[in-house]
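Notes to self, NADPH:quinone reductase:
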Amino acid sequence: MTDTMRAVVLDEPGPVTSLHIRELPVPEPEAGWVRIRVEAFGLNRSELHTRLGLAGDAVTYPRVLGIEATGVIDTNPTGTFAPGQQVATMMGGMGRAYDGGYAQYTCVPVDQVIPFRSDLPWQTLGAVAEMLQTAYGSLTVGLDAQPGQSLLVRGGTSSVGMAAAVLGKRLGMTVLSTTRSPAKHDALTQIGVDHVLLDDGDVAAQVRAILPHGVDGAIELVGTPTLPDTLRAVRVHGTVCFTGMLSNVWTVKDFYPIDYLPSGVRLTAYSGEADDLPADVLQGFLDDVAAESAVVPVDRVFDLDHIRDAHTLMESGDARGKLVVLPWSRQGASTA
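result:
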């Protein structure tokens, strides 16, 4: 092993050209941390927000971005995992409080490492960690979703939206997902969505044409511009979980609950951590993917040299699923 690695560094917020690939020293894990050889990492909207300067004082620079990584244990002073153990990690300050997953190696606290075993390719494994954690947490913590219920996913062709639909179907739910683009209709039906809704701003009317009393639960991934309409799509005693902000807007001006919330409709939020994703849930999902009873919605795979192209595609909103980077590859970009 060499003493240096390749990593993506953001010196200060700005356009996509603010992302720079540099040779950095391979990091050494501090007490209670492990070093992971990163085989793949997925892109996330929060990294786009950081690059655009929307993270405020939560991030110091220069910073290696990346709130997730998938790979193998390289060095583990704690002795918790054997070298070579496949692991995933996410959140916990990655790419914000300390350097994250946009690199060939990263160091993280051992308690935010999730082990697994799988023969799936890294480009598939790299798409799962944060996407599954967010979707699973939204369903379980945010909604307390139950078999037989109905679920609306607002922002359905985002990577988390597609993962939520897959998990909802595995749970036995009726899933309604939105898209603003007719061209993305088939991407949703192919993962099992029961009703694809073209988001014209009035999704609530479309939902109630199918389910007159409204859906049992909804995951809001677009943000506060669509949240009032999403709330109107939910039945009395139903729940909306605010999870994402694809619109880059996440605050409600002059919030007055009695006017804003429909009577009897609950509003929760989800922004959890790695420990919200149990190892057996991750392993079970990967086993189902290997058995072709579940799918991982990957749109495109990039090498590290094309990180700017990957961020440009993420920012455009044109991706139909997760964008994955293989930091050791020199193969350019490819569809999944």
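- The two ends are 30 Å apart (CA to CA).
- The longest strand covers residues 33-42.
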